[in-house]
Amino acid sequence: MSSFDVSSIGKPPLIGPRAKRRHVRSLTGDFPEVDEKGQEKWPRGDEKSWKAALRDIHAEVPEITKSVVTHVQTSLGRAPYNIDDFGAYQAAALSVRDNLIVNWNATQVEYTRKSPKRAYYLSLEFLMGRTLSNALLNLGLLDNYSSSLSSLGFGLEDVLVQERDAALGNGGLGRLAACYLDSSATQELPVWGYGLRYKYGIFQQLIKSDDGTQLEAPDPWLDHQNPWELPRLDVTYEVRFYGHAQRWGEESTGRATWSGGQEVLAVAYDVMIPGYGTKSTNNLRLWESKPKRGFDLQSFNAGNYERAVEASNSAACNHILGKELRLKQQYFWTAASLADMMRRFKNLEKPISEFAEYNAIQLNDTHPTLAIVELMRILLDDEELSWDSAWSIVTNTFFFTNHTVLPEALEKWSVPLMEHLLPRHMQIIFDIVTVEKKFPGDRDRLSRLSLIEEGFPKQVRMANLAVVGSKKVNGVAELHSDLVKKNLFPDFVEFYGKSKFGNVTNGITPRRWLDQCNPALSALITDTLKLDRVTAGRTVKHQNKERLALFVERQLGVKVDANAMFDVQIKRLHEYKRQTLNILGVIHRYLLIKNMTPEEREKVVKKVVFFAGKACPCMCVPFLLTIRLIVNVARVINSDLDTNKYLSLFFLPDYSVSLAEILIPASDISQHISTAGTEASGTSNMKFCLNGGLLVGTVDGANIEIAEEVGEDNVFFFGHLTPDVEDLRYQHTYHPIPVEQKCPALAHVLDTVSSGIFGGDGVYEPLLNTVRQGDFYILTDDFDAYIRSLEMVDEAYADRAEWIKKSIRTTAKMGKFSSDRAIQDYAQEYWNIESIKL
Ligand SMILES: *Cc1c(COP(=O)(O)O)cnc(C)c1O
């Protein structure tokens, strides 16, 4: 699709020590250096290009070169002699941004002129990754910028890697939001994203070299000016917290006045989202919190002041933030977003009763559920509508995406906390409960349907609120959407009927996850004239593996054999994703090879295993040991001279979108091995398969639909199915069988870890005990099948020509998993919006 320089594969990698964030280099002086003859020495590039762009001489240089040089001079205030790769990145980014702003304006003017129905995607996370490479690709300017930068003495790759990832989130949910923005703009759909402008992105992960534990460092991603945002200091809204809500009159579901408390200012920052091959450029509006000027200082002690402005502080995971702050973040963001939508709607001068005909709001998980209550508050208290009219507008505006069926991940907020922080919203939630009581049903059913969970304290169930307040609810893959109906909300399905519950299988944008991260494969796909696709496919894969090998060598100082099979598992560390199963499998393989004769070893398929992923530090303590185990197993087996030719293992720190862009194209296989019924969809499975890495996985989430598309003989499935899992857990609790009996191979691996050969002095026992006792994620039940599936991978890999065919077939059959398809589903089946052509 793009004509990005294919030969750059195998050249210096996209990330490397050279890409390390450099603080602006100390200036070497304002004048060019002079050589012995008194001639000016141009430190970089082609002197004529610089001078022409600076208008020092009369000569033609491309507009782009002029624009970059102008930004060096004026925006950065630097002399050309003093520009390093980071300065070149900044100038190039500002120059690209000029294009984006022009397109952005044209798009927004057109939206205003045509006043179509719009959709808003509310997500607490946006995992955008780098923007420059993506913007150049979408604008079709890669080659032009590449040659302009080159004339100024910079390599495009070196410049691109200067950019720091925008990591405003944790994982899949945030990356999904980013892919959906790309697809919405590409399809010229009037969709805006709304999120928070965190001062700190998700933490940077460091691995302590002595014992392999994870350390978390802050990610001050805004330390240098962020060229991709446009501050809208004039777009501000006041957001209230605490205070007092006074009802009017007797009617229980009537109006109220909310006053007092604190007010914080929400300030808008706009991030331009370019579509691919179109001028259409959408908006991601991020809110920053600011203290309100001239506010009541007396009622505002120093402590409160700090807390008032921290609402957009950090994209950390739920639990570290503290409950109150998290709830504050959620309200701050939803209130500002709704106020903004309401202002835009009011400009249309339509009656408020038509709000839902002009606005659709998608809730990405339960985090923005307060928007439902906030819109009720606006319609009741500000617009003075009746309860029924207000509720009808609300339930025609919102749509809710559920992302998990794990009970511990379902959001709940304590009633006393909500009453304290958002007294008016708590009233409205109780009013919804009152109306809800009119539903027929026995007490048990009513308590399951209820928005309030009894207990001390009582809790608001955000998922139930989201279901009740939305027009439609969807899961993110077929299996998951079925589980949402059968296990999570069966009573709601009975009450509202099946049509309220749908499915939109997740998707990924092929721009970032093919064209950008794997230009050679992208070119191969579009080159229909290529006769020998197997040889070409093999070459592309090998080049990507060499690129990764070089990257690892630069990062960790270790050589990696690009001829070995590359086996990758990269995702957030979580028990249900079962990285533990993988590392125990690696140990099993190591012990097998260790016990072989040298002749036997020669027959082994050589393999390199890669892990990456961050562990939220609030996670259950035993599981945090998994990273440590991986790192220490790596230390032992990578230095075992008997075996390290055949098996090696790497944990790459600080997993990010940019790291994924290097690892994924290089994979021969990737692992998606969650306990059946626990992974709602997964999206990295799609990225790997699109890049021709075959899938080893359980019958879970989108793995199932991937197998349907690419054919079961092109994936390696193993393990118990979803309906078995509950029975197995029952068995573990009431009729446990010791692991020695049930799965001797696994017992041997566990004992080996206990024996201390990977160090740790008993430190891993709590982790091993989660497998030996209880085994909630059924490792003991799946281990043998898992090992067998990896043996089948080895067998298949031995026939390399057939393997490459499988790989090419897999890539070719992944069309369904484009986020363009997913966004079309949302636009047609949910939002009812249409494209706006510029
Ligand atoms: C795609 C992606 C994810 C989601 O991965 P899963 O394996 O589906 O959980 C998480 N983080 C990053 C950086 C990604 O690119």
TrEMBL record:
<keyword id="KW-0808">Transferase</keyword>
<dbReference type="GO" id="GO:0030170">
    <property type="term" value="F:pyridoxal phosphate binding"/>
</dbReference>
<keyword id="KW-0119">Carbohydrate metabolism</keyword>
<dbReference type="InterPro" id="IPR000811">
    <property type="entry name" value="Glyco_trans_35"/>
</dbReference>
<dbReference type="GO" id="GO:0008184">
    <property type="term" value="F:glycogen phosphorylase activity"/>
</dbReference>
<dbReference type="InterPro" id="IPR035090">
    <property type="entry name" value="Pyridoxal_P_attach_site"/>
</dbReference>
<keyword id="KW-0663">Pyridoxal phosphate</keyword>
<protein>
    <recommendedName>
        <fullName>Alpha-1,4 glucan phosphorylase</fullName>
        <ecNumber>2.4.1.1</ecNumber>
    </recommendedName>
</protein>
<dbReference type="InterPro" id="IPR011833">
    <property type="entry name" value="Glycg_phsphrylas"/>
</dbReference>
<dbReference type="GO" id="GO:0005980">
    <property type="term" value="P:glycogen catabolic process"/>
</dbReference>
<dbReference type="GO" id="GO:0005737">
    <property type="term" value="C:cytoplasm"/>
</dbReference>
<feature type="region of interest" description="Disordered">
    <location>
        <begin position="1"/>
        <end position="45"/>
    </location>
</feature>
<dbReference type="Pfam" id="PF00343">
    <property type="entry name" value="Phosphorylase"/>
</dbReference>
<feature type="compositionally biased region" description="Basic and acidic residues">
    <location>
        <begin position="34"/>
        <end position="45"/>
    </location>
</feature>
<keyword id="KW-0328">Glycosyltransferase</keyword>
<keyword id="KW-0021">Allosteric enzyme</keyword>
<comment type="similarity">
    <text>Belongs to the glycogen phosphorylase family.</text>
</comment>
<feature type="modified residue" description="N6-(pyridoxal phosphate)lysine">
    <location>
        <position position="687"/>
    </location>
</feature>
<comment type="function">
    <text>Allosteric enzyme that catalyzes the rate-limiting step in glycogen catabolism, the phosphorolytic cleavage of glycogen to produce glucose-1-phosphate, and plays a central role in maintaining cellular and organismal glucose homeostasis.</text>
</comment>
